[in-house]
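Internal QA ticket QA-208
Title: Verify multi-chain structure generation after dependency bump
Assignee: T.L.

Test input:
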Amino acid sequence: MGVLYDAIVIGGGVVGSAIARELTRYRLNCAVLEKNADVCYETSGRNTGVCHGGFAYDIGSLKGRFCVEGNRLMGDLADELGFSFERCGKVLVGFTEWDYNRLLEVIKQGEALGATGLRMIDKEELHRLIPAVEGEFAMLSENSGIIDPFGLTIAYAENAAENGCRYFLDHEVTAIAREGENWKITAGGEEFVTRWVINAAGLSCGKISEMLGIPGYRMIYSKDDYIILDERMGKLVPMPIYTVPSNLYMGIHVTRTTDGNVLLGPSAEDTMNNSWYGVEQKNIDMLYDEAMKIWPHVKRGDYIRTYSGILPKWTDENGRIQDFKIEILDDIAPHAVNLVGIESPGLTASTPIARYVLELMKAREDLQENPDFNPVRQASVRFAKLPEEEQARLIEEDPNWGELVCRCQKVTKAEILRAIHNPLGVNTMVGVKYRTRAMMGRCQGGYCQMRIEQMLEEELGLAPEEVDFNRRNAPALFGKVRDDA
Amino acid sequence: MNIRNVDVLIVGGGPAGLAAAAELHRQGVTDILICEREKQPGGILRQCIHDGFGLTRFGESMSGPEYADRFIREVKEAGIPLITNASVTDITKDRLVTVVTPEGLLKVQARAVVLAMGCRERTRGALAIPGERPAGVYTAGVAQAYMNLYNRMPAKEAVILGSGDIGMIMARRLTLEGVKVKAVYEIMPYAAGLPRNVEQCLNDYGIPLYLSHTVTEIHGDHRLTAVTVSAVDEHLKPIPGTEEKIPCDTLILSVGLLPENELSLGAGVTLDPRTRGAEVSEYYETDVPGIFSAGNVLHVHDLVDFVSMEAEKLARSVTRYLADGLPACGIAVTCDRSVNHTVPMRLSGTEDVMLSLRVSRPGRDVTVRVTQGGREVAAKKMKKALPAEMIQLVLKAEKITGTEDLEVTVS
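Actual output:
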């Protein structure tokens, strides 16, 4: 028999990687099985990137509790892990008396959940905060913010890996069986044996749950299309702008990323398909119309691209969306932590969810603290954001800092090299993009993608047809035009 | 940090920047610095290995690299300083320029700055083409760079959206390398590129061109597997029921070029909403004194020959600017909807000027008319006018009087 793991996490998204990081605080031999070629390729990388204030959830729910807690933690987490986070606040704008009363209810609900910094503001204050917005009044959530979702997920994963957790990319779980006191997991054609298994499979949580012998979760998926606008528009969105939510739906919002791009979305449509990421024309049109109602500055010429994300939700027999489910069923599936329906606010709540998972495990087993655990991860340096003296110093140290590979985002060769040699072993072009922002600008890789492709070949010794664009077996190219002379 | 002083800093060592440098030198301005971000000068010409360059400027047909080489050699022989691998990251309105190079961060104070950054391609995202985001969606220029500069094969079976010149040239290039190019789809009822390219790149190779068609969905969650194309109505809206799904592994986009003016905006230069390039006087000076612009960064040209010639004119203006300043240019050039854009946008009225323009839509037996207060300043009769082709006509100084706007119409 090969290695016996203490704990294996299925799914390396933001929740799986947060759990992996918490596991490495203890003396546990742990690993993550991720089906994709990178850790933020599904829901974790395809969302609005908002750090929620924690007012939009049922009182007494885990969603509300973990969201409020996660919101409080986010600043410290950003300092430790080195990802972009701004506690910029957020507004819910209203127009009618119904809206006003609904917002008062939202404040009451938020306060019952423990959220703070929620208050009504009048039109004057609203327009002082956001001159470009429409609305008669608003609810301000002072503690809400924006997160770089790629940065957060990658930071968790890299910190976990640096603390000893092994990442197996391209390892989709195909079978799970109980074998004596352990679990035997088949993934990517390999077998893994572990004492604990944690289902953090996100969109596949229902499937993995059944493999663990826990049937019966009804899954429904919410597909969200978004439009991304040029970063020069970001200054008109100092904080996320939402409309008044109903009980079921948050409405179209206009938000800003930590890099200044403006996002319009989501379209929010229920579907049974958890893998189709196509963006639809009708949604592009609808997002434009709806966004213009609250932020009348959308211009077609500012479109950078579109994307979509999918949220996993579980429902009761009447179709009502349920709270996060985080459980250990000792009788049916011992030593298996089952997480189901981890949708929004999963990004904000990721560390509280992970700590709760560890609490459940510790209630069943003594865990020894890992004295070597280092919670701090070196943030990747963004040349474009440094003062000139610092830029000059870096170039003197290493000329690769003086070679701009991506012109739109001003990403240097040194940054690309660091991304290519990442601790997780991600080797796709989009992996470089998520780690550096190269190819994310207005030319969408028109200038830099050939160089990045070439660097992936050279640095990793790959043949041209082996360089994948985003997923495994999604080649960017078909070899050479001519054999080398 | 040391600040270096130069008379003229040229941003970009492509056809515009090189031609400007060479002409400045001929005019006696020698304190020049060309900053080129690539490892070699030449700009986009380096990847344009087809011929047809130079017919107007040199009276002979050359490949892109050969055309560029004429200017590169002249610049080198004249000893004009040219630094490669040097990316300009900032220009202030007082012409203090920041340059990032592997040798260090440079600060250069220039008396005049020449913006010669060229243009970039419009992308899938800018068009918001619906569908999935697989591997295998490339702009024509990226596909061209992969093939001609990097020796990499971007496609096996391709569909091309847009009949821009690079798209058609790539249709031929891909076909010659064994790629099956299934068709070119163009949303407008006419080709976007030059008629000679429709003949030589599509018709000669049996590649069908479908006008009034566009791609309405992209399929594939790994590599691209197919695109859906639809016919469009006169408002360019897809007509339901005309969808056709075409299996292919690559979608090549040739859907327009945009002048690359992020640095110009940073310097406070006002852009023209029609060209998306700088708003310039007849001396190619922007509204920020001492900052000049020419070539594709000013307005997208059809032929590189005109880029070189425009940059040479700019160089003569810069020479005058450095010696004794330029006349004020208070006469605005305006146009109606029949004209896509004109360059320049402001005139002095003191000397003859070459006006460049493009029509908004194709026309036969049309007249381009320039008037001032109802009086005709210049007119040009044309058997055929195509948006793909730049039209030029000379405005005589003696015909321009006072400071009233000039109006350009095509009818």
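Spot checks passed. Residues 210 and 216 of chain A are 8 Å apart (CA to CA).
Status: verified.
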